[in-house]
């Protein structure tokens, strides 16, 4: 894919869609800078919203994205989730300009152990004002090693704080592959009744002359009480 950076960009990773809008991070390699573009889902197309990307000086893979109290927030994870970056829109209801409000080594920022997360989700899980970041990680060789870590984020204070709330194992085994449930893409959805659905795609898609195919998608329903304290 060639974007406004005038070079070939690749390696888009996990995304989160809010109100049909989502950011995608592109970079050339794990040691390269990243360019985050915004897209909007229309009836039959996906259109780029603004040709000017949000530029970051190192690799960003998975992105969590949501609108909280009128402001847009983006949480970006670096290669193997070693780095964490948080951006906040400068103005309400605007995707034009963002301030970087937190950046650093993930483990040092949270003063806790972290994992090599490959997807992230940001938002409210219940009717309270608590904001959560959900991150998932799997394994290439051990099907039982799947974890969803629940982080509580406080954007209200002057300094952003992130604290591990709960770590949830998912020992569900996949079939016809060595890869575990959360090894590749994971999407998290919340419905109006505070029910959670985790959609996992541990397989790479295959391309033939006409279309792209995946062997399996896994859907897991969860009640909200399993995620919050």
Task: Please give a structural write-up.
By secondary structure, the chain is mainly β. The protein has one domain (21-226). It is 2% helix and 44% strand. The chain has one helix at residues 106-110; strands at 21-27, 34-41, 46-48, 54-56, 63-68, 71-77, 83-89, 98-105, 119-123, 131-137, 147-154, 161-169, 185-190, 195-201, 206-207, 212-213, 218-223. The strands form five sheets. Strands 1, 2, 3 and 4 form a four-stranded antiparallel beta sheet that branches. It is globular, with a radius of gyration of 17 Å. The N and C termini lie far apart (42 Å). The model is unreliable at 1-5 (pLDDT under 50).
Span of the ends, CA to CA: 42 Å
Count of helix runs: 1
Average pLDDT taken over every residue: 86
Question: How much of the sequence is in beta strands?
Answer: 35-45%
> Got a strand count?
17
C-alpha-based Rg, rounded: 17 Å
The H/E string reads EEEEEEEEHEEEEEEEEE
Return residue spans where pLDDT drops below 50 for at least 5 consecutive residues: 1-5
Q: What general outline do the C-alpha atoms trace?
A: globular
Count of the separate structural domains: 1
Structural class: mainly beta
Proportion of helical residues: under 10%
Report on the biggest sheet: 4 strands, antiparallel
């Amino acid at each position: 894919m060639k974007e406004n950076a005038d070079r070939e960009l690749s390696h888009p990773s996990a995304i989160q869609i809010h109100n049909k809008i989502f950011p995608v991070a592109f970079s050339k390699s794990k040691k390269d800078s990243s360019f985050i573009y915004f897209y909007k889902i229309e009836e039959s197309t996906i259109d780029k919203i603004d040709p000017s990307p949000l530029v970051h000086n190192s690799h960003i893979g998975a992105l969590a994205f949501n609108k909280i109290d009128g402001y847009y927030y983006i949480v970006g994870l670096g290669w193997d989730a070693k780095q964490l970056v948080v951006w906040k829109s400068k103005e309400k209801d605007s995707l034009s300009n963002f301030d970087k409000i937190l950046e650093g080594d993930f483990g040092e920022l949270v003063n806790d152990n972290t994992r090599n997360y490959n997807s992230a989700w940001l938002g409210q899980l219940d009717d309270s004002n608590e904001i959560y970041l959900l991150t998932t990680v799997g394994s290439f060789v051990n099907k039982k090693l799947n974890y969803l870590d629940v982080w509580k984020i406080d954007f209200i204070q002057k300094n952003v704080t992130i604290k591990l709330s709960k770590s949830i194992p998912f020992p569900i085994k996949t079939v016809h592959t060595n890869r575990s449930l959360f090894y590749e893409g994971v999407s998290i959805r919340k419905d109006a009744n505070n029910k959670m659905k985790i959609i996992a795609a541990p397989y790479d898609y295959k391309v033939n002359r006409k279309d792209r195919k995946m062997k399996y998608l896994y859907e897991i329903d969860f009640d909200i009480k399993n995620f919050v304290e």
